[in-house]
Amino acid sequence: MKAVVFHDIGDIRLDDVAEPSLQESTDAIVRITTSAICGTDLHFIRGTVPGMRPGTILGHEAVGVIEEVGQNVRNFRPGDRVVIPSTIACGYCSYCRSGYYAQCDNINPHGKQGGTSFYGGPEPTGAFDGLQAEKARIPFAAVNLFKLPDEVTDDQAILLSDIFPTAYFGAELADIKPGHSVAVFGCGPVGIFAIISAQMMDAGRVFAIDDRPDRLDAARDQGAEIVNFSEENPVDKIRELTGGIGVDCAIDAVGVDAECPHGQSAEDFTRERDQVAPEQRPQDDLWKPGRAPSQSLRWATEALAKAGTLSIIGVYPPTDTTFPIGLAMNRNLTVRMGNCNHRKYIPRLIEYVKSGSVDITQVLKQEEPMHAVLDAYGEFDTRQPGWLKVSVKP
Q1: What structural domains does the chain harbor?
Q2: Would you say the C-alpha torsion 334, 338, 343, 349 has a positive or negative sign?
Q3: pTM of the model
C-alpha cells in the first residue's frame, strides 16, 4: 500500500509499504478514506520537534471504514465508518478513567512516564505508524475509534479527528466565561477552531493575531477582531482595544515554530543570534543566551489582563525550557496547557456537527489525492494562500 514515510529531516517520501495486520486481540484494521496534513507534522519534518524514527508513517488524523477487528473488539464490526482520535489510550488506566486519555499509563511502550502517544509521532511517543496511508492498525480499537452517523461527512469528520477537539480543549483550558475577552495567537486551522470554540462558550470578544492575509480573513469571517503583527504591535493594539486592560484569556495555538518579530522561526533566529558576539547583541530579551522563546507565547503572556488565564495548545518539544515565568508570576496569571484528550471531546463535537449547530467545513480549504501529497506538504509548509487545512484522499 502507499503511505507517506519519514526518512530524515526534510526528507519524506510516498512509499510502498506492507499492509498492517492485527497484532493484538484489541486491534482493528481501518481502510483510510480521508486523512489530513497537520502543522504538527511540519514540526517533525523541520526537526524542531526531534526524535522521529526513519521509516515511520506520518499523520495522526483520519476517517475510514473498518476492515477487520480483533476478537476483543466488541463494539465495532467490519464495514463501520469511523473517525480516529489522534491520541491513543487504553481506556482502563486511572488516567483514562479520569478523562486524561492523552496521559494514558499503558499505551506508550516507554512506560508510565513516557508521555502522550499518538500516530505518526517521534520515537519517545511510541513511534506508532501514522494515518497518511491506505490502511492503519488501531490499537485498543474499542476506545480509539468513534462510529460516525450518516449525517456527518468525511470532510466534516476529518476535522473532528484532531484540530476541532484540540481547539475546544484549548478554549476550555482558557477558562472562558460568558462575556470574556479572548486573544487567539495563530490563525491556522487550530486557531480558527479556537475562535469558533470561544464563541461557543459565549466569549464577549475574540481577537485573532497572525500576519497571513488569508488566515486573518478566515478569522474575521468567524467574527474575530483581527490584528496583523507585521503591521502593528499586537500587545499594544490589544491593550488599546480593551481600554488598557488586556484580555481575560489568551490561547497560544502556534507552538515551537512561531515566527520571531525578525520574520524568522525561533530556531533560525537562535542560530543567527549565536553567531553574534554577546557585546554586539541588542538589548532585547530575544538576544539573551538560550533558545529564543516563542514570540506568540511572549505576546500572549503580555496581552493578558492581570489575573488572566493563558492556554497553551501549540506543540513544544520536551527539550524546550524557555518561558516568561517572571512576567506570569508577577501578574498573577494562571497557565494551563497540554496535549488534547481527544476521546473526551469527540462524542460531544460529533453531535454539534450532526445537529448543524456549528459549520466547520469552511476551514478545509484543499483536497488532494494521495499521489500529490508531497506537493501538498510543500504548499502547506510555506503557508501558501488558501492552504489553511489540507485533506488527503488515499
Answers
A1: 2-162+340-393 (3.90.180.10), 164-258+294-337 (3.40.50.720)
A2: positive
A3: 0.88
